[in-house]
Specification:
alpha+beta
Length: 149
Amino acid sequence: MNKGDIKNWKLEEVINDIAIIDDVSQDYTKRILDKLKIPTTNHTSTNREFTEIDWKKIGSYHKFFFDNEKEEELNKEAFRNSVLSKKENIIITYGWNEPPIKISTQKFIEDWEDFIASTQWETIIFSEDLELIMEVSRDYNLHSNFKIR
């Protein structure tokens, strides 16, 4: 996939700041989860709490509700104060017809809510070195293998 093929509003906005990692986010995510031996759930669901990663089987598991009104800056500060801020780049996966992209972690932190919204509130995000993982579920919870809030 080329940058000219991107139709996502947020990715179009930051097109010069991203690198396309693969053609299809779903395929990329599956390969990475398999490579890292991350346990996944075995079903798909319309339940808003559904996650692709089986977080109950992850040794270090944290989660918080991120959609409280007027807490956008608090969440941004929490990202800044987390171990995530020490990573240079992150990889954001998208839904159908969008590629996974690499973007600077600082750019993500500055506009985290728009990036998550642009995934339609359902994504898995990796640090570039694949050590840190976050997953957004449609019930507006952010699940991670590191403490954010």
